[in-house]
């Protein structure tokens, strides 16, 4: 996936309404998780990413600061994120309990 033409989100766009259910991709462009919940907004936003599992079963929620993600909109306006973390690195984080 070529992210060079995607528009980065502004701090004002870092809200639950925009980020909920956004897919997160690793450096090799494979989907490694999905944002399930947002804490805060703007520059002080943390997101819960559901990592692993299959068809929603066995996923592990982990908490990550948005500054660890490149959040953007594609040509169709769909929000997604890219991170340098691997799926295994995210799965190694402590489980987040809402």
UniProtKB/TrEMBL annotation:
A Pfam family this chain is assigned to: PRC
Domain PRC-barrel as annotated: residue spans: 14-69
Domain of life of the native organism: Bacteria
Protein name (Swiss-Prot/TrEMBL): PRC-barrel domain-containing protein
Source organism of this protein record: Cypionkella sinensis
């Amino acid at each position: 996936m070529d992210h060079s033409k995607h528009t980065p989100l502004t701090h004002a766009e870092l809200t639950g309404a925009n980020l909920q259910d956004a897919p997160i991709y690793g450096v090799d462009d494979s989907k490694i998780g999905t944002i399930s919940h947002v804490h805060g907004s703007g520059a002080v936003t943390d997101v819960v990413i559901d990592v692993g599992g299959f068809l929603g079963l066995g996923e592990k929620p982990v908490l990550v600061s948005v500054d660890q993600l490149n959040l953007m909109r594609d040509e169709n306006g769909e929000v997604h994120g890219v991170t340098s973390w691997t799926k295994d690195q995210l799965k190694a984080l402590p489980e987040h309990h809402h």
